[in-house]
Predict the 3D structure of the following.
Amino acid sequence: MKKYKYHFLEQESDVTLISESKSAILKAKESLASNRLILEQFIKKNDKFLTSFLPIKIKTEFEIINLMSEASVVCDVGPMAAVAGAFADLMLQSMNSPEVALVENGGEIAIETKETLKIALFAGYNQLNLNLGFLIQEKDCPIGIGTSSATIGHAISLGQADAVTIFATTATLADGAATRVANEVKGADIEKSIKDALDVAENIEGVKGAFICREDKVGQVGNLPSFFKIEGNKTQILNDKLDTAFLGEYEIFD
């Protein structure tokens, strides 16, 4: 099946879309623009929604606000910790279920696919230099993937993890949970910091699994997608970003 890859920037959002349907890709782009406008207008009148590091429980007429609020409560983080994932979920929803639908928004991913996809996740510059990726299959979907790090990227983390990757029922939840779990990876005892964080991940409703990397140690819990080994220089593949690489043949849609 021919698949298209489309990349675009929308203010702070750095988005990659993959699908066999060009119309689905265009609908996803429209979804981001409309939901960004809703969020911007909302936070102008509710500035605490933008700045709070604590959960904000609120019910509104806007799906983007409700998704972020719900994730903040479940994960015990501020609502903006889930903003990239929420945009990704709404973009995926707007695509109306083609055979392959993948949305990556700044490293947060929402997927619904009948065809197996290969995704490489950057685990930081550490002693392990992991060259692993994940096979996302139809049985794993729908799935959201969120990654947080204290050592790379621009997101705020209160922990010390090189990478925390969360697999969840939605990208909104995965995004918020990755922030929460990454905050728990701290302290001189590296193994204990990873174990404590994995315990937190297990207790977040909707989290399917977690993978944590810190210095020369890794840990995992739950049901993770199948691993595969990445051949070649993963740093080059990922273009030195805390981001994702989608391995396979894609026609560029522009």
Remarks:
- DSSP finds seven helices and 13 strands in the chain.
- The chain has one domain: 4-252.
- The mean pLDDT is 89.
- The longest helix spans residues 22-45.
